Amino acid sequence: GFAKIDNHRELRVGYPEVVYGEGKTSEQVTEIATYMQAKGQNVLITRSNDHMYETVVKACPKARYNPLGRTISIVNKAYQETSSKISIIAAGTSDLPVVEEAYETAKIFGNKVEKIIDVGVAGIHRLFNQMDRIREAKVLIVVAGMEGALASVVGGLVDKPIIAVPTSVGYGANLGGVVTLLGMLNSCASGVSVVNIDNGFGAAYNASMINRL
Amino acid sequence: GFAKIDNHRELRVGYPEVVYGEGKTSEQVTEIATYMQAKGQNVLITRSNDHMYETVVKACPKARYNPLGRTISIVNKAYQETSSKISIIAAGTSDLPVVEEAYETAKIFGNKVEKIIDVGVAGIHRLFNQMDRIREAKVLIVVAGMEGALASVVGGLVDKPIIAVPTSVGYGANLGGVVTLLGMLNSCASGVSVVNIDNGFGAAYNASMINRL
Amino acid sequence: GFAKIDNHRELRVGYPEVVYGEGKTSEQVTEIATYMQAKGQNVLITRSNDHMYETVVKACPKARYNPLGRTISIVNKAYQETSSKISIIAAGTSDLPVVEEAYETAKIFGNKVEKIIDVGVAGIHRLFNQMDRIREAKVLIVVAGMEGALASVVGGLVDKPIIAVPTSVGYGANLGGVVTLLGMLNSCASGVSVVNIDNGFGAAYNASMINRL
Amino acid sequence: GFAKIDNHRELRVGYPEVVYGEGKTSEQVTEIATYMQAKGQNVLITRSNDHMYETVVKACPKARYNPLGRTISIVNKAYQETSSKISIIAAGTSDLPVVEEAYETAKIFGNKVEKIIDVGVAGIHRLFNQMDRIREAKVLIVVAGMEGALASVVGGLVDKPIIAVPTSVGYGANLGGVVTLLGMLNSCASGVSVVNIDNGFGAAYNASMINRL
Amino acid sequence: GFAKIDNHRELRVGYPEVVYGEGKTSEQVTEIATYMQAKGQNVLITRSNDHMYETVVKACPKARYNPLGRTISIVNKAYQETSSKISIIAAGTSDLPVVEEAYETAKIFGNKVEKIIDVGVAGIHRLFNQMDRIREAKVLIVVAGMEGALASVVGGLVDKPIIAVPTSVGYGANLGGVVTLLGMLNSCASGVSVVNIDNGFGAAYNASMINRL
Amino acid sequence: GFAKIDNHRELRVGYPEVVYGEGKTSEQVTEIATYMQAKGQNVLITRSNDHMYETVVKACPKARYNPLGRTISIVNKAYQETSSKISIIAAGTSDLPVVEEAYETAKIFGNKVEKIIDVGVAGIHRLFNQMDRIREAKVLIVVAGMEGALASVVGGLVDKPIIAVPTSVGYGANLGGVVTLLGMLNSCASGVSVVNIDNGFGAAYNASMINRL
Amino acid sequence: GFAKIDNHRELRVGYPEVVYGEGKTSEQVTEIATYMQAKGQNVLITRSNDHMYETVVKACPKARYNPLGRTISIVNKAYQETSSKISIIAAGTSDLPVVEEAYETAKIFGNKVEKIIDVGVAGIHRLFNQMDRIREAKVLIVVAGMEGALASVVGGLVDKPIIAVPTSVGYGANLGGVVTLLGMLNSCASGVSVVNIDNGFGAAYNASMINRL
Amino acid sequence: GFAKIDNHRELRVGYPEVVYGEGKTSEQVTEIATYMQAKGQNVLITRSNDHMYETVVKACPKARYNPLGRTISIVNKAYQETSSKISIIAAGTSDLPVVEEAYETAKIFGNKVEKIIDVGVAGIHRLFNQMDRIREAKVLIVVAGMEGALASVVGGLVDKPIIAVPTSVGYGANLGGVVTLLGMLNSCASGVSVVNIDNGFGAAYNASMINRL
Ligand SMILES: Nc1ncnc2c1ncn2[C@@H]1O[C@H](COP(=O)(O)O)[C@@H](O)[C@H]1O
Ligand SMILES: Nc1ncnc2c1ncn2[C@@H]1O[C@H](COP(=O)(O)O)[C@@H](O)[C@H]1O
Ligand SMILES: Nc1ncnc2c1ncn2[C@@H]1O[C@H](COP(=O)(O)O)[C@@H](O)[C@H]1O
Ligand SMILES: Nc1ncnc2c1ncn2[C@@H]1O[C@H](COP(=O)(O)O)[C@@H](O)[C@H]1O
Ligand SMILES: [Mg+2]
Ligand SMILES: [Mg+2]
Ligand SMILES: [Mg+2]
Ligand SMILES: [Mg+2]
Ligand SMILES: [Mg+2]
Ligand SMILES: [Mg+2]
Ligand SMILES: [Mg+2]
Ligand SMILES: [Mg+2]
Q1: Looking at beta carbons, which residues of chain A come within 8 Å of D5?
Q2: Taking a contact as any Cβ pair under 8 Å apart, which residues of chain C between 15 and 34 contact chain E?
Q3: Tell me, what's the ipTM?
Q4: Which of C145, F187, H142, H174 has the fewest CB atoms in 10 Å of its CB?
């Protein structure tokens, strides 16, 4: 019967509430955050900004802002961290905003999570120096711009599910990340699946579901 | 040291050998299959065809052909099936070749796997009738052509990792599956990651890594 | 003879005058509005802005502004509302500007019109809760961004003409709404036709012609 | 409750069964047709071919083949023709297959329907000679390739809902109909909505829903 | 010998000097204009702006500015106007900047030139009212945005060379004029050739070469 | 009145009838040709083939076939050749089919016409050796594939209207001529307008209208 | 003077004649080959086929055919091999046709040349095993399909000029090599320049010019 | 062993450090520059700006700014200039920023380098006047926008490796340089390889590697 089609939000009891800040006013976001705080729920706001944070923090003093990742996290109730680990691997410094969005998302969903950055293939020894740490993770997020080669290289070295996030970092015929996106989908390595351009949140949401299995 | 960069194949001890049949002669494929058979290894050949099967089966009598999925499976050593399940969900009959490729891949990688087909959103009650079975799976593969809406709908109903496979099924401005691919990447539901067009193998490879965690 | 090729405007006697505000000065628009007011005609200005409204309202005190939909409506003569209904169904809050443009257009063309919003497929039970209201309409406008799955889902549930409006809402590889547009054109459900990206006016114009049949 | 989400097919009691022939075997299609015949239902098979017809007609002697439109129609029970009319207007001879698919679809859905062909804008007097007939229709289907200008010209002359069907007719930078499709979506005339390239069936399905209102 | 490859500029003795203002400073442009004035030559500056005009006019008091067309014309020596005529035909008001660029170019190259505007195909009787004037021209420039249907309609009515200029006017899936451009190249009417998007100068340069034959 | 909108064909009294052979049967084409022959009119059939010629020539013994250009010309009445000349300039041997289509079109429209081939810019001295002949023409057709540079180079050397025809000749990322087409539209030389890919007929039709002025 | 613009062919005295076989008849190619043989010149024919070879070899018994690379080489006069080396590095077996075209080109232009194949990044240890050989080369050609990551990885490991050749190898959203092409142009490693898709000849021609410096 | 995979930076001992300024703060860049200065190394900062220069020069008084090329060069240790020469050839004034980036890069990598500008093919005699200088170079960089014809013309006249840089200069359907990029990749002349749009640095880096061979 219809009971099968229950509320998505209900399904996710215990999950933080996620608010996509883009295109919402600081006031609208604050209202949602306050409401959730009253219910004792954790809140993650993505694509926020300085002004939004300043408005939210007045109503929710526990709010913490990650300006690079543009996230606001409000931990109203403690959660148990997973024992298994998500690794977020990134090519260059310009990929950091996406790394941070993924990091904060994974964190508030209760995951142990680690960042391994600046290991792009233009200097591949940097990646190899980190292989032991990388191999300890249960699931990997690979964030890269340009031609996205890092996803293939990592995919060829480890045997874990990899969620690749193309970034809009690049110039010339990068087409706002579309080239990276298509490159990752054409990866010569098995085990790579892809989310949308700059979608650090989506990658971490996926990784979290896998990490908690 | 360099020991970290060991052979990809070695990493995958116990895995079947996978041969991409497209662009290879029946003789080349048979040679690889024979060699692996001698080593007692399981073999999966994708993108094969009738002629290839007839050539392979002479040398490897255990070879089994799935003409719809265009796969040849050769089980030379028994494997333990997982207790957790992969569900492959598909919209329409024209998606079946991709479903079968995914199914055979998941099977030979040792997974319990189930097919739930013809549940496209044009008649959404068909999907709801299957929700109990779908919710039992540990990871889902959603195969769809056209606008790819099925991935979003499933993503909104279950809280499992979903690997979406766009198919090149469609006509008019479908652009050989590119529209479906981009639609799935823009899914309004969280928890969906995407592999390349018609890449049933890749989806099942990913799902298998997750299912075995 | 030539009489067949009569004036489009004449054909539409009784219709409001529609002015596309984009790229026109507030003064130009006010001049047209004043002229139409003198003739006792109703006027709809789309793609307007605050400044344009302030200029127009000085000359036409009946002017009413919808800032979200960016429309100015001036009802100089009463019209008879239709007994049959247009339903405007929308996925998310970011689709609201397009919903409002469609709503105001349908209104001033004399239609009974209803908005059913925030029923995107990521939480499909919200849509099902509205099915009775939706089924009462004579024609449906479905407004959605992302992958546009809502049009297919609605198309599979009701047997009414559906005009789908893709919105430019999205991020990553959404390509400014082109992905949504192509997704809707590839809908697996019959009965869906499509207008241009963000073209709420065009959808409502079409729906009005159908609703008045 | 769930009763709202009843079977799409049930919704359409009295409608013909529509089978999309592409990618199905003649035997599969014949099986469906035979089953529907037994239930006394009308059947429309689109994207069929000579061989399919020859197989179907053996089991269903009432089957009638339209080779240009590639449709097979089987009228097992009489239907009442509408008093209002659908006009299908087409630019050139190469658009005829799409015209015929639309025509047969409209017919078996019980509509009065009329074809007005070879009235492309390169010789616009041909269109004007037909304006009286065109104006009598309740809803119009405009089928055109090349730049699709016919939809805009008709849209500027009549005040009826227009469903435009871009065809893949063209050469050079026509991009398989995509240019026509996008041209029609950018039509300068109001009242035009668009279906997918070469989708005569979809246009007629829409028109039928409108014509029967 | 090499004498064949003489200076392009020399070839064009008697022609005005044309300066593309975009990306040049007002000072650079003024320097060129002053130099040409000293040589008694006529000067056309395209893609200029208010500030550029104010700088130029101080040094060249004969400079005349067309703010809509963004051109500065400096007639230092009289020229003989052609007896034959170029007609510039445009669909809508948003095409006017391109019309004006074409007009000023045609003028300073010594052509009799006429503007026929606001005759888009959404109200085609407006075009027919102008057919006598249009038929008097030796060569036609058709400026249009949206789907560019005007070029095809004019091409079907007159037997003169037509240079079509797509404009970047449009919204939604217009893709910055690319849809109009491709539509015009796919025109169903013979006798239409096309220049780049918004390239009023190029169209008038071509038309001038033809008009002076 | 309506008299303005007379028949396109009538406008072109004295012109040959042009039949686009693609997608027509040999029988259909022969019927048209026979009818025109009876009226004493000249006929040009483009995009024909061997079989079509053999069928046509039986009914119209004067028919002459150009297999490279895929044209059939039937001169039923003598015409006066122009004294001014059209030059068709082509880069390489693979452009020859388009050159021949343009040549035959220009011929049967009564133009003096000359072919200057194999003068691509990879060996630019070949072009310079032909400059005297090129400069004698009244209008130029430039046919080129690859990057289409020939149109720009010729445009920089002569002061005549140039109609550029991109050809679908190329490999790799030529995209079926779209790259050449866009390159020509972005030509750095003034005086170049463009027709569709491989459209030798359209270029010659345009050139003929100019040459006859 | 004009002497500067001397014959390209003359410039290249001592070079082999290169004939692009695609779209030429076996007879045309044989004629050129015979003529060059008479002059004692070396000849390279690319994009040839079996039939072409059989025709050529009758007239030129020294002709040697590489069926994988689709080249015919005719060495009529000995040449001095370079002491420095070109390395051609390729990812997979499906890249071999392009490798062979490059190899034969480099050979007949007199270069020492080496092939290092099957070293794609999905198993990166295979590449590292070849680094000593790769580092000995003066210039590198990297041939890869899919996402083209090999070019970036090699570019990050060696300090030599790299000419990357994208291949049309791939499936799904590879877009016939365009994704690989754009990926390589967006390489995160410096020192990589790119030629057209599958253009093994062009890469080797470039490499040869560099190797002979 | 692993020694093969040594540090990229170490490989380049004696090379300047290159910092990509885009997206870095002036402070971050200054820190890197100061650190390198302390080590006595030369530094090149690309994509910088006025503010960045003012910050850097306080810490590194030897810093020299090229505002057009947006580069900052800091020569902390003298280098030996090559005896062979790189020529940078450019079509127009709007290509100058890219020319300057290439020039500064070539300079600080120790190359003799020469600029030959404003020699676009619209006035091809300007190029021929420079052929003697051009022929003296060991390697050429060709910088052009629009259709990129200059690369083909130069490629047909000289027998040196050419690195083509498409610029984003253009208007209308130039697509931000993509048309130029694809045009250059389809060059009819051999010996041309291509780097990304506006990538003057990359071209000069390549040219430098070749020039130093
Ligand atoms: N950065 C992000 N990128 C993509 N989706 C997001 C992001 N942040 C939040 N979301 C999704 O957007 C939903 C919130 O949308 P809203 O109801 O508009 O706040 C959440 O449930 C998430 O599924
Ligand atoms: N020519 C056509 N173009 C698009 N959709 C079609 C066409 N013919 C049939 N359909 C749709 O395809 C469905 C049949 O699909 P199937 O179940 O595969 O036979 C029908 O219910 C129609 O909605
Ligand atoms: N090769 C060609 N390319 C483009 N248009 C052509 C070509 N040949 C003929 N045409 C046009 O097509 C029309 C004939 O179409 P149809 O009535 O189908 O024979 C002619 O009047 C021409 O305007
Ligand atoms: N203008 C440029 N375009 C492309 N790549 C550049 C440019 N300037 C510097 N680079 C590269 O970017 C690297 C510096 O990046 P970063 O480490 O972020 O400073 C250098 O090693 C170069 O390989
Ligand atoms: Mg792996
Ligand atoms: Mg979910
Ligand atoms: Mg429906
Ligand atoms: Mg209308
Ligand atoms: Mg005409
Ligand atoms: Mg010229
Ligand atoms: Mg390197
Ligand atoms: Mg050269």
Answers
A1: 2
A2: 22-24
A3: 0.92
A4: H174
